């Protein structure tokens, strides 16, 4: 069968098997939908066809509507591209067809994939097929009848859970709950499906129209209560998003008015949401995340990843034990080295606690947890390093010590072994300076807690070999991390672009803006917490140590705030000792601590930033912009210096490493929506007003703003020109 094609074969039993193919996931592209309509029309009109089986090629039913079409609609505004898929195709051509249609589901049926299957008159699936409606994760709602048919097939509570969490269920659960009619092995899928279809045609099995099925919907008052509860939950999980509430409105409409009015409302709401900024951001993140795994001159030069079966970790602290946890739960053997048995026991204990935590959260079964723990071996010397495929060093940020350790591991490990460091700041060229095998040195920058956070920043030097990068990217995927490949500098891409976030928040504080207001506004923007809450969480000692690194690396613009050291002097260390900008007490929510006010007043005096000694007057929007625009400015430098060569890498690094709200599409995507000219002029204005270099626009930003070139255009896209100043 050709790559993108719909084929129909009519058997001697009178069943037409319609197979669609659009690798890799059989997405419903416009051409596939058009061909499917034609084949269905033919099947309905042919006298030798009694029933139809609809199935996908390549071991999958369908990954849903083609999301590239969403991008096209978002760019052109042409809603007609969505071609009334729901009513014209799923309802009229499938559900209302005059001959029975059975969906034969292998592998997965997601989004429109499941919606098409629910329009069919029965569903037969292979074991472990994934069934889900993940549309909310793209900023839209199920738009091909899913909001109406799933509650009618599964009952409201389970349907709401699936839609609101975007999480799929497996066909076994679907079978138990009534979504799937039978589970059969892959080799019997077509045989059973065609028999089922014939049985419906001969009335031996029921001809079920899902939209008419009211059995699983309870009383109106009961349903309304369930939806009310779901609204509260959705608000708690996604406080800044409106589309989950819009989805619940649509589901409620269907319950109150009936399935057909529900489908009409679904269509209206879908059309509004697909062109919203939220959907634009989330669709961008979907494709950007996949693009990060295609690295020019690395993944496109025919290299095959080598197998990494055993990894040694040097250092069993918080990072080392988190990384070890990620590896062992993904079936990679780990040798954990510590300097003495006390530290070793501590490290192993943390790993055991991490694994128990994953079991408690139902992310790991008990048997897999036991297997994982059997894959770790604690050691206090290098004798076990002779057959490891990779070493990850996770000790404290001390260059001399790191150089010594790298000298030792180079001798102890086999010649193919990858030598990785988890440093978050130190120049990799210095760490590997004394080695003979500098092509094997690479940064594996995990984020804390390493067994939970999904980003792996892979830092390459000019000498790191592409093979080593390919290998580490493969390990990242094995342990379910998203790898982003970046260049070498202080802070690499994530911490480098993120440092102005905290510093600008401190400048605002010292200019007299209420810190709790800053936190609240940043949360409203979509970050999970504000800059001061984040500082409380990481601990002030970390903030002071990291602040020194940036001061040394970027003395022209790194800002020193006296607040953190004064907080430490007064016995505060954030969440760790329960006392920070907020008070943390066991069993209750953190609360702003009024007792920090005198410390802030003292800091304001020391810093003396307020113009004429008075707090500045500033709008809420400007507060948010003053925290975020300096990050955009630094991100521009990261791009200009080639630390990151593609904008998608920075967008994904910001979403997964800085918790930049995914619905904003990542830092550069958002900056382009705001407009580089506005960012440039705002920064310039603050630079002139407050005299702080943190706000001085970078050359890259200035050139892009001046030439009207989006920040996301390739680095080579900016013509070199004179500045705004000299132009005006
Ligand atoms: C009207 C309807 O209600 C609206 C919809 O149906 S919206 C779509 C709903 N469906 C989804 O959200 C599913 C999105 N896809 C996924 O979650 C995952 O791709 C998957 C679980 C299907 C497969 O995962 P995995 O095997 O890891 O492969 P993954 O790398 O993600 O995808 C493989 C390729 O298929 C593409 N792809 C996956 N689903 C796609 C889709 N629905 N449309 C277009 N392209 C898609 C990916 O972009 C990727 O392309 P690339 O190779 O060029 O980078």
From TrEMBL:
Residues 310-488 form the 3-hydroxyacyl-CoA dehydrogenase NAD binding domain. One of its GO terms (biological process) is fatty acid beta-oxidation. Monomer. Its main location: other. Pathway: Lipid metabolism; fatty acid beta-oxidation. GO terms for cellular component: peroxisome. It comes from the Eukaryota. In the central section; belongs to the 3-hydroxyacyl-CoA dehydrogenase family. In the N-terminal section; belongs to the enoyl-CoA hydratase/isomerase family. The lineage of its organism: Eukaryota, Viridiplantae, Streptophyta, Embryophyta, Tracheophyta. It catalyses: a (3Z)-enoyl-CoA = a 4-saturated (2E)-enoyl-CoA; a (3S)-3-hydroxyacyl-CoA = a (2E)-enoyl-CoA + H2O; a (3E)-enoyl-CoA = a 4-saturated (2E)-enoyl-CoA; a 4-saturated-(3S)-3-hydroxyacyl-CoA = a (3E)-enoyl-CoA + H2O. This is 3-hydroxyacyl-CoA dehydrogenase. The keyword Acyltransferase does not apply. Pfam families: 3HCDH, 3HCDH_N, ECH_1. Keywords: Fatty acid metabolism, Isomerase, Lipid metabolism, Lyase, Multifunctional enzyme, NAD, Oxidoreductase, Peroxisome. It is found in: Peroxisome. Residues 491-584, 623-706 form the 3-hydroxyacyl-CoA dehydrogenase C-terminal domain. One of its GO terms (molecular function) is NAD+ binding.
């Amino acid at each position: 069968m050709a790559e993108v094609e719909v084929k129909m074969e009519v058997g001697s039993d009178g069943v037409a098997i319609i197979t669609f193919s659009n690798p890799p996931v059989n997405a419903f592209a416009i051409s596939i939908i058009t061909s499917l309509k034609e084949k269905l029309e033919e099947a309905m009109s042919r006298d030798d066809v009694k029933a139809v089986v609809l199935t996908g090629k390549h071991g999958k039913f369908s990954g849903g509507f083609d999301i590239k079409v969403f991008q096209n609609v978002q760019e052109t505004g042409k809603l007609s591209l969505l071609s009334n898929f729901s009513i014209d195709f799923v309802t009229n051509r499938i559900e209302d067809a005059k001959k029975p249609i059975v969906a034969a589901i292998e592998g997965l049926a997601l989004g429109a994939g499941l919606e098409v299957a629910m329009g069919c008159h029965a569903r037969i699936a292979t074991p472990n097929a994934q069934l889900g409606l993940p549309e909310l994760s793209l900023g839209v709602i199920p738009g091909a009848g899913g909001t109406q048919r799933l509650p009618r097939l599964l009952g409201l509570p389970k349907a709401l859970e699936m839609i609101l969490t975007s999480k799929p269920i497996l066909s076994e659960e679907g079978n138990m709950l009534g979504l799937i009619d039978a589970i059969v092995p892959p080799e019997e899928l077509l045989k059973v499906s065609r028999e089922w279809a014939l049985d419906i045609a001969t009335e031996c099995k029921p001809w079920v129209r899902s939209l008419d099925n009211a059995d699983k919907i309870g009383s109106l008052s009961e349903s309304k209560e369930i939806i009310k509860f779901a609204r509260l939950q959705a608000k708690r999980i996604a406080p800044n998003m409106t589309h989950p509430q819009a989805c619940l409105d649509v589901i409620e409409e269907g319950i109150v008015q009936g399935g057909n009015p529900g489908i009409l409302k679904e269509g209206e709401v879908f059309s509004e949401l697909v062109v919203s900024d939220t959907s634009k951001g989330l669709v961008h993140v979907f494709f950007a995340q996949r693009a990060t795994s295609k690295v020019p001159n690395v993944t496109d030069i025919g290299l095959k990843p080598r197998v990494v079966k055993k990894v040694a970790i040097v250092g069993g602290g918080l990072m080392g034990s988190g990384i070890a946890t990620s590896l062992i739960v993904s079936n990679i053997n780990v040798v954990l080295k510590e300097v003495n048995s006390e530290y070793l026991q501590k490290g192993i204990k943390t790993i055991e606690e991490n694994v128990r935590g994953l079991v408690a959260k139902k992310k790991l079964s008990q048997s897999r947890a036991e297997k994982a723990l059997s894959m770790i071996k604690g050691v206090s010397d290098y004798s076990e390093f002779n057959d490891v495929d990779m070493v990850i060093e996770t000790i404290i940020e001390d260059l001399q010590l790191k150089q010594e350790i790298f000298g030792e591991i180079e001798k102890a490990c086999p010649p193919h072994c990858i030598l990785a460091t988890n440093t978050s700041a130190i120049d990799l060229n210095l760490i590997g300076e004394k080695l003979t095998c500098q092509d094997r040195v690479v940064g594996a920058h995990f984020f804390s807690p390493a067994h939970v956070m999904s980003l792996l920043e892979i830092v390459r030097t000019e000498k790191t070999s592409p093979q080593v990068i390919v290998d580490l990217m493969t390990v990242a995927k094995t342990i379910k991390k998203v790898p982003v490949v970046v260049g070498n500098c202080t802070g690499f891409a994530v911490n480098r672009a993120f440092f102005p976030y905290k510093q600008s928040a401190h400048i605002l504080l010292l200019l007299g803006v209420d810190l709790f207001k800053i936190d609240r506004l940043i949360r409203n923007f979509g970050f999970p917490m504000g800059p001061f809450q984040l500082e409380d969480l990481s601990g002030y000692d970390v903030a002071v140590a990291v602040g020194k690194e940036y001061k040394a690396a970027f003395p022209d613009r790194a800002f020193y705030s006296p607040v953190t050291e004064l907080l430490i002097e007064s016995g505060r260390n954030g969440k760790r000792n329960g006392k920070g900008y907020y008070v943390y007490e066991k069993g209750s929510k953190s609360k702003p601590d009024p007792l920090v006010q005198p410390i802030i007043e003292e800091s304001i005096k020391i810093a003396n930033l307020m113009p004429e000694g008075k707090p500045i007057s500033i709008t809420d929007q400007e507060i948010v912009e003053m925290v975020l625009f300096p990050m955009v400015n630094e991100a521009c430098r990261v791009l200009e210096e080639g630390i990151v060569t593609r904008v998608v890498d920075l967008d994904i690094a910001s979403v997964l490493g800085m918790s930049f709200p995914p619905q904003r599409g990542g830092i550069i995507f958002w900056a382009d929506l705001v407009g580089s000219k506005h960012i440039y002029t705002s920064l310039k204005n603050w630079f002139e007003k407050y005299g702080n270099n943190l706000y001085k626009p970078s050359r890259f930003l200035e050139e892009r703003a001046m030439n009207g070139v989006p920040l996301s255009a390739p680095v080579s896209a900016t013509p070199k020109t004179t500045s705004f100043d000299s132009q005006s």
